[in-house]
Amino acid sequence: MKQSLIIRFLLSLCIFFFCSCSLIYRTELSEEEESELSLYDLVMTKVSNGKKESLVKAKQMEKYRKDEHMYAKDVSFILYDKNEAIETEGSAGFMKSEKDKLLVFSGGVSLTSYKEDVNIEAENLRVDTELEQLTSAQDDTILIEYGINEEKNTKLFIHAQTIAASGVSNTIRISGKVSGLIIVDDEDARGIE
Questions:
Q1: Maximum alpha-carbon separation in the chain
Q2: Which are the contacts of 153, defined by CB distance < 8 A and separation ≥ 6?
Q3: Which comes out higher in pLDDT, residue 81 or 21?
Q4: Which of 58, 79, 109, 128 has the fewest other C-beta atoms within 10 Å?
Q5: Where residue 51 sits, what CATH number does that domain have?
């Protein structure tokens, strides 16, 4: 169920980017094509009914008309709940949007959902908005940490090479070399037999 919520979070983020102002940066700019739109030191806050919904920052954002791609460099974002408390935050070195259907995060990606009590770190992540899927690059190193909230004393760490999660089927597939660690506080373990 947490996997589904992570997928839904990423899809919500995608919708935010596409409806508000998508932020993507091309690491190797084409000399043949100039960007249609370039923004620097971007800070964008989305407000609804007088309350902050999200905050997006990017060092540089460019949009290209020819291939309908958008690129951003040094991207960070925060999603707020209805009480304006931070619900989810994340960052990536680079982000690319391909025709509003595929988001590719690279250069070190970190996603934290305080609501779902999970943090995911990877070098690369892809989000397919049509198929509602989150995938990592093959043989990438992924770290998934459950139990990140301060009031939780039990922690679960999963270290894997490849991850694929589906919001449609509510499944997560971890493959390649997988290892993990569970840390259980004595107080948490008292009710477990």
A1: 66
A2: 147, 184, 185, 187, 188
A3: 81
A4: 128
A5: 2.60.450.10
In sequence order, the β-bridge partners of residue 60 are: 40, 73
Six token digits for residue 13: 């983020």
Nearest to 120 by CA among 81, 152, 146: 146
Task: Check whether 175 has a pLDDT greater than 50.
Answer: yes
Range of the domain at 71: 2-25+35-189
Neighbouring residues of 147: CB distance < 8 A, sequence distance ≥ 6: 117, 153, 154, 155, 156
pTM of the model: 0.71
For residue 62 the two structure tokens come to 């460019």
> What pLDDT digit, counting tens, does each position of 9-66 carry?
555 554 444 444 433 434 444 444 678 888 899 998 989 999 999 888 999 988 887 7
Residues in the chain: 193
* In-domain check, residue 68: yes
Q: How many domains does the chain have?
A: 1
Q: Of 53, 41, 121, whose CA–CA distance to 87 is shortest?
A: 53
140 found inside a domain: yes
